[in-house]
Records
---
Amino acid sequence: MSRLSTTTAVGALPLRPVDPLTDAVLLHGWLTHPKSAFWMMQDARLVDVERAYMELAADEHQQAHLGLHDGVPAFLTERYDPAHRELVGLYEPEPGDVGMHFLVAPTDRPVHGFTRAVITTVMTELFADPATRRVVVEPDVTNTAVHALNAAVGFVPEREIQKPEKKALLSFCTREQFAKAVSA
């Protein structure tokens, strides 16, 4: 991902690469928060988060970015190559498939429409790469809130899959499905 800034109804949402050491305290707070239970890092120690994001940063098949709102970190997004990470052996990847995760920072002052603006920003950034033909996600089957968000930006569920850590809903969104969903 580049340092794209998408302007949304909630303002500009620029992205910057995660710095594993500098951002670890912030990410640790987000990932261990009860609202982030689907990230399965509730018991992670600070060193675990540092290590996880250092490994991710060193991996040519993954990238992590922080999204800013009014200059303040407000969300996390991860991009991965599903032919090499997360979904290896669980489906047949096609050329141009890109995997994605996102997490909106827990807050006591939610902004109406913010999460939808975040996923729209993340998808816009992924499709800014002309090589991206389809975005792949694999949220927990019980995460109905994210299923609704995914549907709102054009994702179509394909099937349930069993990952080592969870039962997931494998879903896909093409460039055309995304464009149609966000223009509606």
Note: Residues 7 and 124 are 11 Å apart (CA to CA).
---
Amino acid sequence: MSLDALTFRPATLADTDAVVALVESAYRGDSGRRGWTTESDLLDGRRTGADEIHAVLAKPQNMILLAELDDGSGPRLLACAHIAIEDGAGYFGMFSVDPGLQNGGIGKRVLAQAERIVREQWQTPTMRMTVINVREELIQYYVRRGYLRTGRFKPFPYGDARFGLPKRDDLSFEVLEKSL
């Protein structure tokens, strides 16, 4: 598959079901185990839902960035990410690549496009994200792309099923940051 034809656009409400399906496939259940981003060993339950997608799309300076490829039968959703402005910095989250296509360069392209939007369109010089603290391989993925470990952590929202049902009691979010 050639990534030269990869296109990007902001999600609309009409994309809700496709975004939820992609995010769930990348993070939960057996389909997520095909890729390396799965959280299935850490969390059960949902990763996102239509309510969360709708809330993101309704806020100013929030976007769900879609990466699509048209294979001749219409655009196919390959990846997505939530980008926003939060606390004076860009925010990057809900990053999902079709598990069967991970490790093919799509994720790097999505991350670069999200950084470009935050830097050029939103005029924000910093991107920030949170990663589950025990996901060392994922943290290292971002470190290789210029993100720094800040030493700051946020508590995991235990008891709030909207964020999943934890299988361990030692989860938190590590804050990573990059100057754009």
Note: The chain is about 30% helix and 35% strand.
